[in-house]
Design a protein that fits this description.
Layout (H helix, E strand, L loop, with lengths): L1 E2 L11 E14 L2 E7 L4 E7 L5 H9 L5 E10 L7 E12 L13 H6 L1 H4 L3 H23 L3 E2 L5 E2 L11 E4 L2 E5 L4 H11 L1 E9 L12 E10 L3 H22 L1 H6 L4 H5 L7 E3 H10 L13 H8 L6 E4 L12 E2 L2 E5 L1 E6 L4 E8 L4 H10 L8 H8 L5 E7 H9 L20
Parallel strand pairs: 1-2, 4-6, 7-11, 13-14
Antiparallel strand pairs: 2-3, 2-5, 3-4, 5-6, 8-10, 9-10, 11-12, 12-19, 14-17, 15-16, 17-18, 18-19
Helix pairs in contact: 4-6, 4-13
Catalytic activity: tRNA(Asn) + L-asparagine + ATP = L-asparaginyl-tRNA(Asn) + AMP + diphosphate + H(+)
Keywords: Aminoacyl-tRNA synthetase, ATP-binding, Cytoplasm, Ligase, Nucleotide-binding, Protein biosynthesis
GO molecular function: asparagine-tRNA ligase activity; ATP binding; catalytic activity, acting on a protein; nucleic acid binding; transferase activity
């Protein structure tokens, strides 16, 4: 019976054949222990000299790391294994021998591992991170589909910037100028006016010359947008969504979390509602902690976000930022126009902002004023202004950075481990 490692629990006591690679091995006299992987998981294969043909045991002793194999054996339960099962090997067939595999069980430097990212992905740690990333994506689709959101795919090539500023990748679009998308938000607002509640999931690009452990040049964003939803309701959707994906990972990826040594109790605590503080209150927290390098009206940096998050054991919303440091489309607070109806969601444990969102301006006259203030009077943005001309409604949206969220949930130290092939300031290979 041919099967995969992830399905061996269905075949306890039965003989199965698995296509696998040799991740590692060790021998103890007349027994060889093979650490096998097949992409779905890892399992130990035990080869006992007295129980197999002589040539099978010789193969078990001789096979090299990352050699591909057909392995046949009997599945048995094993309480000592984190996986819970092992394979009593009866036969080994070599598919392709791997010679001088460069990533050995010894310690390697980060740059070496990044140069060999195409192979580093095979390791147990990277496998666990990618499986958790996949679960976050799967549960994202489940959450938004279950809550009436329609998947919409905004363009990657755009004629305008969503956020403004110079952190754009420019390219030629035949005889015109184009940019790689910073965000699909503007297009999602248009889609929300047609479909009510929408979300996108796709790559975004920031030409930001940053080398921090929280920044990538190319990263993936989940961006929901909803008509007839105002600021407070948007925060409720955000905390329900984040709670849902964390609990889904706990339920479906416990083995991977244990492989990473993640403190499960910290994730088990991530359930809505989340605490909310205003920008003003955040400034007060920093001052009380003796952090005086920031004044009202300045944006928070990573050290400020970490210091604020230390006061909470759940993600915390920081709301009502000064309008002058936020994007042109954010709706001012009617009670206090110098701040906007927005929020950043700061993850605990030092992982910083994972969501940015706001209620959008729905008033035509105010949006026209914002256009003038931000010099957006050219034709490129006329279509966006149309959304306020024809049946404008209150609406809100947000964007969650997938890689930062994966880093937080997995406990990874750097976002470069949270995407299969990271694009960094100094890295475009492999």
């Amino acid at each position: 019976m041919k099967t995969t490692i992830s399905k061996v629990s269905n075949f306890v006591g039965q003989e199965v054949t698995i296509g696998a690679w040799l991740a590692n091995k060790r021998s103890s006299g007349k027994i060889a222990f093979l650490q096998l992987r097949d992409g779905t998981g890892f399992i130990q294969g035990v080869v006992v000299k007295e129980e197999v043909e002589e040539d099978v045991f010789a193969k078990a002793r001789a096979i090299t790391q990352e050699t591909s194999l057909w392995v046949t054996g009997t599945v048995r339960e094993d309480d000592r294994s984190p996986f819970g099962y092992e394979l009593a090997v009866k036969n080994i067939e070599v598919i392709h021998e791997s010679v001088d595999y460069p990533i050995t069980p010894k310690e390697h430097g980060v740059e070496f591992l990044m140069d060999h990212r195409h192979l580093w992905l095979r390791s147990k740690r990277q496998h666990a991170i990618m499986k958790i990333r996949n679960e976050i994506i799967r549960s994202t689709y489940q959450f938004f589909n279950d809550n009436g959101f329609v998947k919409v795919d905004p363009p990657i090539l755009t004629g305008t910037s969503a956020e403004g500023g110079s952190e754009l990748f420019h390219t030629k679009y035949f005889d015109d100028d184009a940019y790689l998308s910073q965000s699909g938000q503007l297009y999602l607002e248009a889609a929300a006016m047609a479909l009510g509640r929408v979300f996108s999931f796709g790559p975004t690009f920031r030409a930001e010359k940053s080398k921090t452990k929280r920044h990538l040049i190319e990263f993936w964003m989940i961006e929901p947008e909803a008509a007839f939803v105002e600021h407070d309701e948007s925060l409720e959707i955000q905390e329900q969504y984040v709670s849902f994906i964390v609990q889904s990972v706990l339920k479906n990826c416990k083995l991977e979390l244990n492989t990473l040594g993640r403190d499960l109790s910290k994730l088990e605590n991530i359930k809505a509602p989340f605490p909310r503080i205003t920008y003003d209150e955040a400034i007060e927290i920093l001052k009380k902690k003796g952090i005086n390098d920031i004044e009202w009206g300045e944006d928070f940096g990573a050290p400020h976000e970490v210091a604020i998050a230390e006061e909470f054991d759940k993600p915390v919303f920081i709301t009502h930022y000064p309008a002058k440091i936020k994007a042109f489309y954010m709706k001012p607070d009617p009670k206090r126009p110098e701040v906007v109806l927005c929020a950043d969601l700061i993850a605990p444990e030092g992982y910083g902002e994972i969501i940015g969102g706001s209620q959008r301006i729905d008033d035509l006259e105010l949006m026209q004023k914002r256009y003038e203030e931000h010099h957006l009077t050219g034709g490129s943005y006329e279509w966006y202004l149309d959304l306020r001309k024809y049946g404008s409604v209150p609406h809100s949206g947000f964007g969650l950075g997938l890689e930062r969220t994966v880093a937080w949930i997995t406990g990874a130290e750097h976002v470069r481990e949270t995407i299969p092939f990271p694009r960094l300031l100094n890295r475009l290979y492999p």
